[in-house]
Design goal:
The complex is a heterodimer of chains A (148) and B (435).
Chain A lengths: L2 E2 L3 H7 L13 H10 L1 E8 L2 E8 L4 E6 L5 E8 L5 H5 L3 H10 L7 E4 L4 E7 L2 E7 L15
Antiparallel strand pairs in A: 2-3, 3-4, 4-5, 5-8, 6-7, 7-8
Chain B lengths: L4 H12 L28 E6 L11 E8 L7 E10 L3 E6 L11 E2 L1 E2 L2 E8 L4 E13 L2 E11 L23 H4 L3 E5 L20 E5 L2 E6 L19 E6 L10 E7 L15 E3 L1 E2 L5 E7 L2 E7 L6 E3 L2 H5 L8 E2 L7 E2 L4 E8 L5 E8 L2 H6 L15 E2 L9 E3 L7 E6 L18 E3 L1
Parallel strand pairs in B: 3-10, 4-9, 18-25, 19-24
Antiparallel strand pairs in B: 1-2, 1-14, 2-3, 2-8, 4-10, 5-8, 6-7, 7-8, 7-11, 8-9, 11-12, 13-14, 13-26, 15-27, 16-17, 17-18, 17-22, 19-25, 20-21, 22-23, 26-27
């Protein structure tokens, strides 16, 4: 027997996404992400940066890395379904679309390695992970390697 | 000595033809057929080829042919060539546009009378198509009424659910985009999703019910989810063995190999005494993997024949160990690894059950190799030394892709199935990889 469900989450996803995404934005947008993703949020403070961690109802773990200036400089995720990257990447998502639509090796992981935006996304069914960061927003003395 | 039924049939035929045949199994004057205690061997191997594929644009794609029939029919069938062998997924997926598929009349899987569709995203791109049941044949093996995915049929709604495009990529609904006519997922699980897609309410966006008024998220019983054909073969159903021939360091225009069904179920598929089995376990990234240890640290590792390169950490991590010295990314915006001379990079393999072993990958000059490929006007399609890294800061894991399979024999054991001699039963709980 197959039953259907249609969650409130979906209703939100199906609508037009406003420009409230987090990467490159001020920290306040993290709360909006949490609302859209409907997850439990926690915060972890490190030397020179902190990250908010959102764990959604389906077990996805999403981290948003925040600089002392209050800007989200990095995002990472691991999940059993690819997360809402348009929401999380905001103004950077078109860069992902452009790279993904123009490449030849389509099913491979997608990587973008440019001076102003670094991105990596890989996935097979039930197993998706990736990260993104903005080099220009990296806090002083913080390595990009913290975004994972 | 017991005589098989066909022996008495042969005698009868011989007698009818007036011939005398001496049967060398003495004492057998009885003509009563006796049921043999073991069934005759089932053909359990298919040829694998690595070439440029149906759209002449593929590199490091391993293909087989798969026969798909209408359920219950042995005549309404089509043999689909150029189906990619994928040890990293489970389930058969075929393009509706593949040769002959449009002439089939498969049985749609439905929920409350509404057809079931599936979205399968990758890191960026995705597949979208209907779930239907078919009889699937390979060699002498048969999986009856198997749920498969038929990609981009004319009935498939063009309005893809927005969640399916979260990765920003392309719909892989053509042979040019897919670089294959389909995907044969022979991974470690029986179904592609499992219980996470059968519970209500379902929170993962894989399965949908679609009607003319649109699509809604569906929970689908595991029995009707897209399923690994091997796990549902009548025999030889505990896993596969994929072995590819060696290729030269400069690459090759093609390569060949064999996909064998069953592990330790017949005389031709015994588990080699030189192989080590590694059990899958839940890793810190919430997925199931084994581990690759390199330069002190251990990373989640996957064996996935659908990856065209070995994905091995990042260039800084690789070059930090003596064996990886001199490796760098080929160019600023390329993640292919380049080396001035060939590198064989050893690492340690481990699992959560205490099994350990060693393995290595070859790393060549990615730019030189790629420039010799069909992607760039060359003729090469097979490379055993194509490797790539994640950008520094990316989530790190290791994927042993198709290059790892050349000159190697890799076993994929299905979760929960009996293990062969040489593999502890405890290793099969979540499936295992061995090489």
């Amino acid at each position: 027997m197959i039953k259907t469900t249609l969650s409130i989450l979906l209703v939100l996803m199906m609508g037009v996404l406003p420009a409230w995404a987090a990467l490159g934005e001020y920290e306040g947008s993290v709360g909006l992400d949490q609302q859209v993703l409907r997850g439990e949020m926690s915060e972890e403070v490190h030397t020179g940066f902190k990250f908010h961690q959102i764990i959604t109802s389906d077990g996805a773990v999403i981290r948003e890395y925040v600089s002392p200036e209050g800007k989200v400089f990095g995002i990472s995720w691991h999940a059993r379904f690819i997360p809402n990257l348009p929401q999380l990447l905001g103004s950077y998502f078109p860069r992902v679309q452009q790279a993904a639509q123009s490449r030849v090796q389509r099913r491979e992981p997608l990587a973008i390695n440019t001076t102003d935006f670094v991105y990596f996304s890989t996935g097979r069914m039930m197993n998706y992970h990736g990260s993104a960061y903005v080099p220009g927003l990296l806090p002083k003395n913080v390595s990009a390697g913290v975004v994972r | 000595m017991r005589r098989a039924p066909w022996a008495s049939l042969a005698l009868t035929l011989a007698a009818m033809m007036g011939l005398i045949i001496l049967v060398g199994c003495g004492g057998g004057s009885s003509t009563t057929p006796i049921t043999p205690t073991t069934p005759p061997p089932v053909a359990n191997t298919v040829n694998v080829v690595v070439n440029s594929g149906p759209a002449n644009n593929a590199v490091n794609f391993a293909y087989v042919s798969v026969q798909v029939c209408n359920p219950g029919s042995t005549t309404s069938c089509v043999t689909i060539p150029d189906v990619q062998v994928d040890t990293g997924s489970s389930g058969l997926r075929i393009l509706a546009s593949a040769p002959g598929v449009s002439g089939l009349d498969l049985a749609p899987v439905t929920g409350s009378g509404t057809p079931v569709y599936e979205c399968l995203p990758f890191g960026a791109d995705y597949l979208w198509g209907q779930v239907e049941q078919a009889d699937v044949y390979m060699a002498g093996e048969k999986a009856a009424n198997l749920p498969i995915q038929v990609i981009s049929s004319s009935a498939t709604p063009s309005n893809v659910p927005s969640t399916c495009t979260y990765g920003g990529g392309q719909n892989l609904g053509s042979s040019t985009a897919l670089q294959a006519n389909g995907i044969l997922g022979v991974g470690t699980t029986l179904q592609d999703c499992g219980s996470a897609c059968s519970t209500n309410p379902v929170s993962l966006f894989y399965y949908w019910l679609c009607s003319s008024s649109g699509c809604s998220l569906a929970d689908v019983l595991t029995a009707t989810q897209v399923s690994n054909p091997v796990g549902f073969f009548e025999s030889d159903n505990n896993g596969v063995i994929l072995a590819l021939g060696s290729v030269n360091a400069g690459g090759a225009a093609s390569a060949t190999g064999v996909l064998t069904f069953g592990i330790g179920t017949q005389s031709d598929n015994a588990f080699s005494s030189s192989a080590n089995a590694y059990a899958l376990s839940l890793n810190s990234q919430d997925s199931y993997s084994i581990y690759a240890a390199y330069n002190v640290l251990a990373y989640p590792a996957f064996i996935d024949s659908s990856y065209i390169y070995n994905l091995f950490l990042d260039s800084a991590a690789v070059s930090a160990a003596p064996a990886g010295a001199g490796i760098s990314n080929c160019a600023l915006n390329s993640l292919f690894y380049c080396t001035s001379s060939a590198v064989n990079l050893p690492f340690t393999v481990a699992d959560g059950n205490g099994n350990t072993g060693s393995a290595s990958i070859n790393i060549g000059n990615g730019t030189t190799l790629w420039n010799s490929s069909v992607e760039n006007g060359g003729s090469n399609t097979a490379f055993d030394n194509l490797a790539e890294g994640t950008p520094l800061g990316g989530t790190v894991s290791v994927v042993l892709g198709l290059p790892f399979f050349y000159g190697n024999t890799v076993y994929v054991g299905i979760a929960g199935k009996p293990t062969p001699t040489g593999v502890p039963a405890a290793d099969a709980g979540l499936g295992y990889w061995a090489f």
